Amino acid sequence: MAEKDTKGRWIDPAGSHVPPKYIDPVDKKRDQLVEKEIRQAMLMQERLAKFKAAVMKDITKYLDWLSARCGEESLSPGGNYQLTNFSGTSRLQIKINKVIEFDERLQLAKQKIDDCLERWSEGANDNLKAVVFDAFKVDRKGNVDTKRILGLRKLLIKDKTWKAAMELITEAVTVTGTRSYLIFQVKKSRESEWETIRLDLAGV
């Protein structure tokens, strides 16, 4: 239900305390609907989190068993694995991606890149400019596209300032954590294409 004060008055987004008798029935009905569905969504998120933890635990047990059977040290579930059933009709993929951010040296790299583009302005390729500008665009949260930034290092440009900028980009990389993905796929037959069971487990 909506937030209420000690006298039972409903508190609106502006912080006003409104007695229930003055609240439109439409607002009450909508509030009831939203709160109900949010509770269901939160319960589902909790179930997914428990499901993901249980799957990862089962995978770890299997990897430990496999390692012991082969006389090796335990395999870490932090790697990327693909486990397929005997008939080749069901498979489970585990992907671990590093969460990468950039420190303040990224801005120094951007300054050097800007210097390059300014020097090359007369003969610079418009496509190169577009690649650079797109790489440094920020989303609504103020974050840059990590893959595009790192992709600049693949450009074979023989310029000392450019190379210095690429080195700064490399030095600016910081790994702040990891994100694990579980992908469940099935085939209707051995000749069929893989179909993914849609579960968003990355964020739970």
Provide structural commentary.
With 204 residues, the chain is an alpha+beta fold. The chain has 2 domains: 1-77, no CATH class; 78-204, no CATH class. Helix content is 44%, strand content 19%. The chain has helices spanning 25-69, 105-119, 126-135, 146-151, 160-172; strands spanning 10-11, 17-18, 81-84, 90-102, 173-186, 195-197. Strands 3-4-5-6 form a 4-stranded antiparallel sheet. A hairpin with a 5-residue loop joins β1 and β2 (17-18). The longest helix has 45 residues, at 25-69. The radius of gyration is 26 Å and the shape is flat. The protein starts with 9 loop residues before the first strand and ends in a 7-residue tail after the last strand. The mean pLDDT is 84.
Describe, in short, the structure shown.
The chain is of the alpha+beta class and 204 residues long. The chain folds into 2 domains: 1-77, no CATH class; 78-204, no CATH class. It has 5 helices and 6 strands, in the order E-E-H-E-E-H-H-H-H-E-E.
Question: What's the topology here?
Answer:
Elements: E1 10-11, E2 17-18, H1 25-69, E3 81-84, E4 90-102, H2 105-119, H3 126-135, H4 146-151, H5 160-172, E5 173-186, E6 195-197
